[in-house]
Structure formats: structure tokens, C-alpha cells
Amino acid sequence: MRFSGFDENFDVIVIGAGHAGCEAASAAARMGAQTALVTLSLDTIGQMSCNPAVGGIAKGHLVREIDALGGIMGRVIDRTGIQFRLLNRSRGPAVRAPRAQADRSLYRAEMRRTLEATPNLHLRQGLVIDLIVEDGKVRGVELQDTRRFHAKAVVVATGTFLNGLIHTGKRTYTAGRAGEPASIELAESLKRLGFPVGRLKTGTPPRLDGRTIDWSVFEPQPADERPVPFSFATESIDQPQVTCYIGYTNERVHQTIRANIHESPLYSGQIKGVGPRYCPSIEDKVVKFPDKNRHQLFLEPEGYDTYEVYLNGFSTSMPAELQQELVHQVKGLEEARIIRPGYAIEYDFVDPRELTPFLETTRLRGLFFAGQINGTTGYEEAACQGLIAGINAALFVRGEPLFRLHREESYIGVLIDDLIHYGVDEPYRMFTSRSENRLALRYDTADARLAPHGRRLGLLGDEDWERFNRRRERLAKLRAVIEGTRFKRSDAVHAELSLRLNQNLGDAISLAQLAQRPNVHPELIYELLPAETRAQTSLSDLETVLADIIYSGYIDAQRATNERIHQHDYLRIPPDFNYRAISGLSREMVERLERARPETFGQARRVPGMTHGALATLLVHLKLRRAA
Amino acid sequence: MQASDTIVAVSTPPGRGGIGIVRLSGRQALDLARKLLCKEDFAPEPNRVSLHVLRDPETGEELDRALVTYFQAPRSFTGEDVIEFSCHGSPVLLLQIVDALLRLGARAAEPGEFTLRALANGKLNLSQAEAIRDLIEARTAAAARQAARQLGGELSATLQPLKDALLELIVPLESSLEFVEDDLPDLEIERLSARLSDLVRRMDELAATFRAGRLLKDGLKATLVGRPNVGKSSIFNALLKQDRAIVTDLPGTTRDALSEMINLEGIPVLLTDTAGVRDSADAIERMGIERTRRAIADADLLLVVVDGSEPLTAEDRELILEVAQSRHLMVANKCDLAGFSLGRLRETVANGAEIIAVSARTGQGLEDLRRAVLRSCSAPESATDSLLLTNARHYDLLRRASDALATAQRLLQERASEELVLVGLYDALRYLGEITGETTPEEILTQIFSTFCIGK
Q1: d(C-alpha A157, C-alpha A381), whole Å
Q2: What predicted TM-score, i.e. pTM, was given to this entire model?
Q3: Which residues of chain B make contact with A279, given a CB cutoff of 8 A?
Q4: Across the interface, which of B4, B180, B415 has its CB nearest the CB of A518?
Q5: Which one of A53, A104, A105, A305 is least enclosed by Cβ atoms within 10 Å?
Q6: H helical segments located in A260-410
Q7: Average pLDDT over residues B239-245
């Protein structure tokens, strides 16, 4: 019995307009699907709930990959970033990554503008309370205000809103973010559908009134002089850049925390969810590292037109009045006033081992999950999942094969692969060390790795595609010059270089060989380029080419190691292979293998939930079979 | 989690022995035991031995009185419910018991199936599984002890400190890359480099035990050569009499009429006698020479036997020249005879090779010969005391790990960027992981978070 005629029909519905939801809706719409983006509040689209910053090591890599595939996060932060820095500049290019402080409100506005300018994308405000399910397939969503939206595919990107519970001291209340309602019914609906749900926790620090801070005490951390943009489409960052500041806690702060530790819901047992270890609260830092007499703090402006300052490094769920006392004990913050107190938030997530590499659930066809619901943390981690989920929702609607990225080619692939195989015990954050292939997954090669996928999917427009091809050609030409330019012993340059580097350069040395010598920096190679080439070459292009050259030997060696260690990966499993006949394989393992029907041992190795024992047994049997 | 069927096998070696063990593993093990014991209420305490009468399930006839032990899943060898029947050792009786269990619904285990199940249930890592194979194939008590130690995880335990040391190097390097914005201590390159050297040395030391370890496992091939009638066969038989190996009838042991396994203080030695090769007609003689040549080429050690009571013949000298490039010992037989002179021999041979005077007839000097054989394979005095690498795969992996670390150290010294230094460290970790089990990125992160205060 339906008494509301207010139904709407779409191809794809995205629930939640955070970083995952925005990418999902944008991608699906640009791939031609009529897409509804349903959010609790149109005023908080692209909200940065925590730190107003994008990027960092590994996270910056993710944003580059999103951009290379045709996502929007990189472009939006490039237009709204107020402090750009390239991290690890002194280290090798594989571990360099961009990071930018954002103007929180400009970021929101720019994201909303971007979405509103996207054809086929329909913004809808409302609270989704249930999924409409028919015959094991998702058919749409039901809203609190009785509206029903119908679609063939639904992307759930609800962030911390699922059963969100905020803690400040002993006080708890349901909320999705400070001041916004939680999503309780939808959480119940997912449980009813049988999804295995767990609990995670995250936290945020207090925000201060910048006018009450004694800035002279803190060490300034300026922006880069030449800001490196996130998006391959951005030529340059022209907006004014601001400075952040670094300070420290002290023993007095630590003593106060220790004396009041029972006030922290983290230590009183009130919080059950597991929080991220790399984003510890200040309580955690003090308790777990009692020998450290100070902890680093960053004072980060929230934007151009606000005096609100984010006290990075001071995440806490202590009672508000205690937070104020602790802040006052920090040198330089004696007079500082808290505008918004910090808090911890617990929320539901669904075991991501339920997901396929396409981020589709195995329980309901057409239902995709992205972001914190899958147990991740971070805007970048959320956004990249949103992009993949949005792409696949659109492909699903068209009835086309779904799209996945492999861990060998991208951090996005690593992230999804880790999630669906290993699940999560704590909020999952990307690190470069999670990839076996770190040297090949550089921030400056994201386009070479992923742009062809983006183009094929229809997410990369002609202009982007042409830019990509121009860059590719430029780099190839430059590489040819670097490999072809040689200095013989008879050349004056050769003698000068030998002296300057204090190295034996042999009878002749090419620029490519020179670049692989210790203490040879790209600037030196740049100087040595033929004048004509140098005039057409940017230092960043040169760095990319040199990195390709320098890393190639390591990448080959690493590939050889990987192949040696995973030498059985290519062992084929016959289509009629009878897992039930393998003695010692538990029924659970047999079922998982029968469901996945891996074609090779390598694929079997990655079937979710396979134990080492089961794999060893399978391998022995595959080898026996081959030997027979 | 248990496999669907229950398997049974005699798990002691074939042949008449004091006792024989029938092992039953699987979900129905206890059920089947109840039926075999004709005791519906049989509810044994795990890991306790009790005496029971085993009966034919159809006739009720008594088969044997056996000690029955119940190992409850998952705390058993296979990780499943296991029942072991320690019966009297008659092969016929054991087959009757297995047959009874088969009739009750068990399935005959395939070779190695118990081990496979243990592997599948996560009871063993790969190195332990390999050790089981080695244990089954062990030829001497010392080799068996080595295999047992490996099974006990001693190899893993020996490698663990190396892995830990490696992790301690990875953690600061990785942290400095990954957490550039955190307030971390500066890297102390020289200290890291010194620790890296130390690690390489420890790995090389362990790898160096491989030769001795391999000898323990595979044994030493020692071949007696010499012209006819110098007493090769007598020496062969004399050594055999005292040192016959514990186990000689294992399948896969290369044995012909002229080879026999002996046990020299724990080292299995495959002793080969090339005797009688000259005693036949011409065509066969040529074949015999071929065989001798091959035996010489195959041997780890040649025992060149001469008659010490007579001057060397031209044939003797020819042989001595031929073996000069091989590892060999000179054995001067017949030291009990009047004409014996070690001095004369030394002068004639004059190549500085060790000469051991023996008498196969009286047994004199055999002890010296044994010691010389052991010395020649440079088996450490206490071959059975410290852990030795016995597996070529393990040796190979350790060598590779050590090489990877040496590369990393060079890069560290050149002040190469950390991500390059880390390539070698991770390679080494993965090679070690091939022996002891993988170290996941998650474990490295855990180590980082417990070492440094990370996070803004």
C-alpha cells in the first residue's frame, strides 16, 4: 500500500555526499547514468569532518590515482588548497607525495559547484531509512519523509553516520558528526539484510579561536614556493598560500591527562570501537609513550576568511572543560579559547570481506559500499572507493562487465584488495609500505598507469586525454635524449664531472648512467641537457624520466623476487577441479573456492578468507596432479 | 573445522616390531573407536593412555589388547580428532585392525595425508612439514634428531631473532619515509649499517652449517678404490660389522651389492666397494673400469687402499695420480704384516696426503680411519649439538637473504634514499619468511606503532 505518489526513478542512487559519495555520484553521472546523490544536508556536501587537509604520503598517491582515472578530488583541492607542500622532497620520487591544507568552506562550495555542473546528476536532500530489495537485488531506497527512489544500483557511502555515537567525557549522544543526526534506521536495515556489522571509532581535536593564540611562540611552516598540484589538469596553483605553525605539548599537559585519565571514555571502557593507531588521541599518546616529554602539534588555519584554527595532534574525547584546561597548559595557548571541542565517534562498519573487487556486495546484486562503511579512514581512501563504486554502479546498470584495479598497478588496487581479503581490525589507512610494488606506484606515474582506464570508461574527456598523450610523448623524447647524450673521456665536461663528483666515470658515460651514480641530483642532469632540450623541459618532467631510469633496475629485481616467491601463481586450476576430493580442506574453504572458481593458484591465494594451510594443501594437490 | 572423512593407517614402519601404531584421524575418529572397542560410552580423557580390548566389529572376536590414546581436536597432530591404537607389532594383526576400521567407515590414508591435514589445519608451517618428511627419511639417529628439532620449530626459532633484528632495521627506515611529518628521532646511518653487518654475519654463519647439515641428512658417499687384493672388501666388511646403520631398508636408498649404509657417529655414510671389478672377462672388465670411474666421480670421499706390506705397483701409482684432484684418504692395509712400512709409503707417495695404517684382519687402525673419514667431511665435533641447515632450499633462501642485505648495506653507505635501501631489507625478510612464515605489512606497521609515537 503506497499513498505517496512522490516516487522518482534513477539508474543509480548514492547515499551520502561525503568524499566517497561525491566521487561515486560524479563518476556514475558522467558515465551516463541518471544518478541521485541523497544527502542529509545539501550544505555539508564534501564536508571535511576532521582535518581540513588532503593528501600526504600514500594518501597523496591515492588522490593522484583518482585524478588519473578521471575523479574530481584532485581538481577540487587544487582550487581550494591554501597551503601546498610536497612531502619527502629530499627522498626518492616513489615516496614523495603532495599534501594540501584546504579552506574547508571553499572546498565544500567548490565540490557542490562541481557536482551541480555535472549532467545527469541530481542532488536530493533526505534521510534514507531503508533499502528496497526484490529477488536478492537492490531496487532503490526509502526515505524518512516517505519518498521512494528507484534505481538498479545503489552506492552506500554513509561515513560515520551509521549508528554514529559521539563521546565527550562521560557524555554520549547519537550523531553522524557534531551537530548532525546519525543514521539509525539504515544501520538496522543493513543488519536485517544479514550484513556482518562491527564497530569502529575515530576522533577529532578541538578547534581554537585564532585571535586568542600567541602565534609568536610557534614555529612557522610555510607553503612550498612552487606548489605541486594534485591534478594532472592543473597548470599551476595561483591562490595565495598561508602558513601553518608547529608547537609542542609539555610535561604539565601530560600530568593533567594522567591525573584525569579516568575522565576519558577511551580509558573508562565506555568506547568499545577500535580506533586508528596512526591517529591516536592525545590521551593515547601520553599513556602509551610515557617517556616522551612532548608531542608535536600543528596549528592549521581552517580557511582564508575564518579565525578558526584546527589543533592537529590533539585529538581527544576528554570532557569539554578539561579540554579547555589542557589547551591552556600548552605554551602559546595560555589564552586560547576553544570554539568546538574535540570528540570521539563510534560508528558501524560492514566487514569488507563481503565485497567483490568491484566493491559490490556479495549479498545483494547492484548494492555497492564505499568509504568508512568498509572500515577505512581518510578522505582519500573514501574518495577512491567512491570512484570505483560509482564506476561499477554505472557499468552494472548498463549490464557491462565491472571494473577493477589490481594491486600491482595502483594503491587503489592495494586498498581494495587488502580490504576484501583481510578485512579490518581498525580503521584502514593507506601506507606506501602496504604495496609490494612501491617503487612503481609513484605519484608522478599515476597518469601512465591509470589514464588509459579512465579514458576507456569515459571519465577522461578529450582535453585530458590529449594532455596525457602530450606528456607521454614529451617524456619519451626526453628519455631518448638522456639515454643518448654521452660524455667521452676526451670531452671537457667529462673531466669536470669526474672532479666535481670525485668518481671514476669510465671512458664514456651517458646522462642516464650518470643519473644512477650516488650524489647526482636531477638539477645536475638538467644543467647537462643539450640547450635545445633544456629549453623545452620542466624539472618535474625530468624528475619523472630520471626516476623511471633509476628505479627500473630495482623494479626488475623486485619483480624477479616477487615471481620467485609467488612462482606458483600461474599454476592453472582446471575448471573441473574437484575441491571436495582434497583431503583436509574444510567445508568452508571448499565453499569459498567453489564460489570463487579461481583459474590459477594466484587467484586462489586471493580468495577472501583462505587460510595458509588450505592454500598449502591446494598447492600440493595441484602439483601432484601436474606430476601425475 | 574438520574434513569430512576419517582416515586410518598403520603409522609405524612396516616389518615386525615390538609395537605397531594404528592412527585414526577425522571427525568420526571417536565414534569409530567406540565401535572397535564395543564400548558405546567410551569417553576418554584427551592425552591419557588407557588399555582396551579391540574387537572385530562383526564377529565380536578379540583382535588385540591395545593402549588407546585420544587427542582432541584441535590439539592433535592433524588438528582433527585423533585416536592412536598402540598394538602388538605383528603386521598381520595391524592390517586386521585397519581392516576393521575400514569396514566401520574409515578411509585408508594416502601417503603423507596425515601431514597434509596437519598442514591444512595450520598445525605445521612449511618448514615443519619438510622436517616431517626428513624425519621419516632420516637414516641415522643424529639426522633424525636434527629433523625432530626442526619439527619442534627450532629452525624457525633460530631464524626468529634474525627476523626481529631485520624488523628493527626496517622500522626506523620505513617510519622516516611514511611518517615524515611526525616528530621522529633522526636516522643514525652508521649504527644501522653496523647492525646490518652483524645481521649478514649471523646469516652467513647459519648458512655455513649447511655442508655439515647436508651430510647429516643425505650422508657422505665414501668409495673404496684400489687394485685387486689390497683388501678393500675386508676393510668394507670390517667397517660394516661395527657401524651398520640403524635403518638400511628404506625405499629410495641406492643400494647394490657393493654399497652399504654405515653410521659414523651420527653421520650416515654410504660406503661403496668397487671390489671384484677386475675379476671378470675383458668386456665386463671394461664395464667395470667405467663403473669405477663413475664411482670415483660420484664420491664425496675416496678411500684409496694400498697394500702397505709391499712396495707400490705401477697400477697403485696410476690410481694415486688419478684421484689427486678428488677428496681422498690413503689407507695402507695389512699393517699387521711384517713387511709393512708406513715410512716407505710416505716416501713413494710423497704428495703429503694423510696415510692411515690399518689392518682389516685384526681391526687395528680402523678407529683412526673412522676419525679420518669424519674429519675429512669437516663435520663439526658436536654435529648433533647445534642446529644445522639440512635443506638445500633453506640454504638457498638464506644465501639470497644475505646477498639482499649486503646490497642494502651498500646503498645505505652511499646514502641512497630509504625506499631503495628498504628493497633489500624487504627481500631478505621475504626470503626468511619463505622458511618461517610471512611477515605481513600489517606486522611491520604494528612494530612501527609500538616503537614510535605516530600520528597527528
Answers
A1: 12
A2: 0.74
A3: 455-456
A4: B415
A5: A305
A6: 282-288, 320-328, 379-398
A7: 63
